[in-house]
Amino acid sequence: MTGDAINLASRLEGIAKDGEIIIGPDTYRQSKGEFTHKIMKPTSVKGKAEPVQLYKVSGIKAQLEPLSKDNERQIYSEMVGRDRELNKLKLQLAKAVDGAGSVVNVMGEAGIGKSRLLAEFRKADALEGTMLLEGKSISIGKNLPFHPIIDLLKHWAKIGDNDSESSVLRKLETSVKSVGREDADEIFPFLATLMGMKLTGHHAERVAGIQGEALERLILKNVRDLLSKASDILPLVLVIDDLHWADSSSIELLESLFRIAESKRILFINIFRPDHSETSEKVRRILKNNLSVYYVEIELEPLDTNYSEKLIGNMLNIEGLSNTLKKKIVKRTGGNPFFIEEVVRSFLDEGAIVKKGGSFQVTEKVDTMNIPYTVNDVLTARIDRLEEETRQLVKNASIIGRNFFRKILLEISTNIAGVDGRLNYLKDIQFIRDRKRLDEIEYLFKHALAQEAAYRSILHEKRKKLHLSVARAIDQIFHERLHEFYGVLAFHYTQAEDWAQAEHYLSRAGEEALKVSASTEALEYYQQALKSYINTQGERANPEHLAKIEKNIALSFYNKGAYLDALPYVEKWLKRHHEAIPTNIFIVVLKLLKSFFCILISLYLPIFRWRRNPSQQDLDIIEMFMRRQQMLSDVDSMKFFTQSIFIAERISKFKPNLVDKSVGRFATLSVTLSWSGISYGLSKKVLEFTKKRIPPGDLLSTGAYQWFSSVHSYMAGS
User: Fold this and answer.
1) Average pLDDT in the 1-20 region?
2) Which of 460, 472, 534 is nearest to 503 (CA)?
């Protein structure tokens, strides 16, 4: 507590007599649910221009909060002031049913009514003949690769969180076959890879060895094919909620998918808060520039005075609520429907409005009610008025996230009695709600702002302990499918400041992200892992472990095509393995001569080379050499030339069948020799040598040979 609050407390200390507790209006609002007070006369206080309303604490209130179902506390209103926006959505739905796709962005500030608009849209009669699929981003989802897309696909395939790994694969494959059996063997492996599933048999063979941009393109192609085929069966309505929290890979994938709306019966609906530059604003910009003919924008504004008053009247349907008070509520809430709703609920919580005989009535307490200045204030006050154990349950749930499963909440709330009864009570007062997801009950805060308010109310040290409890609960409950939760575990362990576990799961999450070519998210995970490891180990850091993380950072940059950023990490890794490019020109020349001599032996006396069995470290070094060579081709032609010589010499040490694509990689030397003009004869010799040694069925090496042969012919003037 700082500033004015401390100054006022100092003044009140001087006013209070021995044994008295005197508080100001802010403290009164926070404590009146748990203490009784006597209202004092407004008092002049030094430093305040106007007299301050003071209160004397007189005792502790009895905890009368019921834990059973209490419909007397529930309020409801028909949607008001959004008919025009709802009709816009319905029009685009009708167009999709008739064969004309579109992309609709529904945007607005928190609490403005985006979710309510979507709820009303779900009631549209025209949805009966369509397939409605929804995916949701979460507040910690920035680094969870493809989270909203995976969420959407899980809903489509009816995959639940209790499904075993084999059941998940079976459900996904069955769903893919229902759309297009003839293409299922092509689409399914890439969808499963996107969703982080472990493949076996011919499905695993289909994606083996594909990574980076190639994997990214194939995932995109097969998601597009799936949606296109599904829309041929039924018009599709795809909803992505809370898009502002999405990860970069999801945004890039969606940007490509939106184009399907040009030719297919697909309606995309994106729901988000504006002013998030890397997500919502990026999507708006792309759609305006590239897809303007098919793009519709719906921006929800605050309700005007008439609609705000109508909303209050609908919720309470009450006589005796003065117009003055209504206007005060409207002015304070600025026409934000959620803020209005929470203020009205606070009147019910305080007993200023009660329900008798099936209708609401005003009590004398209404005259002393203070309306909070922000929606966070009213939410915090509602949380503070809860009975102690129920309040703690809300805080525990907020640590898990806006959506939370009962089994995790139970695991971290063993010191709270009657959890189910308390959850029912929180539903009755409309603080949380539940929904059935397949055969499971999932709870969620009625609004993201409620979860955020509860989370902020937890002291830092307590918050750390709760994050640790959540992480351990996830580890225990989902142990058999833990790879799906690496990103979430990394978040909770980081928030718990358990740096060793955080580094472990950040690295695991990075590996999973690389598998699905989500390079941006992988990079973020690995950079955080490096920071966590250094924070934990300091000077005791293991060089091999550092090298592993640095290699993964290099690969993440490499997959993004950010070669200039990747190169320093590649050089660090190679330096740790004593393979860095020397900086002394004399040493470089000596190494080149040595390597060139070894290459000549490899070509003319191969019996003396191609003999060794490579270690795993040898294979890793060759792989990093190849990646460095590709990077150098874009940024430094001289180093690219020397790197080609070093790679060819390194490869020719080992048995060709033990190094992946060994012969094709050796053939790269032909391009270096012909392009530089050093020796067309030697270039031809490399090509003749490799042609005889390409293993049957090695299509990549065959393709490489044909390309290099073309380059040689062109440079030789043929």
Assistant:
1) 71
2) 534
DSSP readout, 644-701?
A: HHHHHHHHTTB-GGGSTTHHHHHTHHHHHHHHHTS-HHHHHHHHHHHHHHPPTT-HHH
Both 317 and 356 in one domain: the answer is yes
Residue 504 domain-assigned (yes or no): no
With 70 as the cut, is the pLDDT of residue 438 above it?
A: no
- For residue 695, is it within any domain? yes
Give yes or no for residue 30 having a pLDDT over 70.
Answer: no
> Is the pLDDT higher at 467 or at 13?
467
- In sequence order, the 6+-apart residues with CB closer than 8 A to the CB of 266 are 96, 101, 227, 231, 235, 236, 237, 238, 260
CA distance 631 to 328: 64
Residue 72 confidence (pLDDT) above 60: no
Same domain, 180 and 291: yes
In a domain, 421, yes or no: no
CA atoms within 13 A on the CB side of 276: 22
Q: Closest Cα to residue 689, out of 651, 658, 632?
A: 651
Q: Are the beta carbons of 404 and 443 closer than 8 angstroms?
A: yes
Tokens 């009213």, residue located = 378
- Which sign, positive or negative, has the C-alpha torsion 470, 471, 476, 480? positive
Q: What is the dihedral sign for C-alpha 629, 631, 633, 635?
A: negative
Burial 564-575 (b: 16+ CB within 10 A, else e): ebbbebbbbbbe
Q: What is the CATH number of the domain that holds 262?
A: 3.40.50.300
Confidence of residue 632 (pLDDT cuts 50, 70, 90): confident
- Give residue 391's pLDDT: 95
- Burial profile 56-92: b = 16 or more Cβ within 10 angstroms, e = fewer: ebeeeeeeebebeeeeebebebebbbbeebbebbbeb
Q: In the chain, how many domains are there?
A: 4
41-45, 422-426, 428-432, 552-556: which range is least confident on average? 41-45
If you average pLDDT over residues 339-355, what whole number do you get?
85
CA dist 447 and 138 (Å) reads 12
Interatomic CA distance for residues 649 and 602, integer angstroms: 8
DSSP states along 344-413: HHHHHHHTSEEEETTEEEE-GGGGG----SSHHHHHHHHHHHS-HHHHHHHHHHHHH-SEEEHHHHHHH-
With respect to residue 256, please indicate whether it lies within any of the assigned structural domains. Answer: yes
pLDDT tens-digit map of 195-233 = 988 899 999 999 988 888 889 999 999 999 999 999 999
Name the residue type at position 233: I
Number of neighbouring beta carbons within 10 Å of residue 322: 11
Average pLDDT taken over every residue of the chain:
87
**Distance set, CA 421 to CA 408, 416, 432, 566 (Å):** 16, 11, 13, 54
Could you tell me the two tokens for 193? 């890879």
- Among 320, 355, 371, where does a domain finish? 371
Question: Using the 8-state DSSP alphabet, how is residue 612 labeled?
Answer: B
Q: What is the pTM of this model?
A: 0.78
How far is it, in rounded angstroms, from Cα 483 to Cα 486? Answer: 5
pLDDT at residue 62, rounded to an integer = 39
Which domain, by its residues, includes 48?
4-60
CB burial of residue 254 (10 Å; 0-12, 13-18, 19+)? buried
Q: How far apart are CA 466 and CA 492, in angstroms?
A: 9
List Cβ neighbours of 611 (8 Å cut-off, separation of 6 or more): 653, 654, 655
Q: Which of the listed residues 351, 371, 391 is the one where a domain comes to its end? A: 371
